[in-house]
Amino acid sequence: QVCHGLRTPQLPVWLCSLSGRHSVLFGTDSRLLSDWKTERVFHLYFYNGQREQAKTAHLTIDTHSHPWEEEPCEDPSSPGKRCPPVEMAIRTKWAGATVSWNGTDPFF
Length: 108
Hints:
Elements: H1 4-7, E1 13-18, E2 21-26, E3 41-47, E4 57-62, H2 85-93, E5 98-100
């Protein structure tokens, strides 16, 4: 039997498979699980365990940003700028959200 803590986590945690790599996206604010008002601007942390990632990436998510404030992401097949897979995964829950990497280079 699965213990209660594993069925209902105290902090938001998402296990992801992005581009064939397993990673974890998590938050440290438990209110994100129960209070929709905390989903305006919040912080998540991303770790993929790969050698190229020296430390956990601190992401700031803004779900009420304006489209003109965000840098455009081109089609992943185009030779220009692409959206990191973790940003696309975040937008499956918070459509239109902007993601700030806070000085860390995005992971592709």
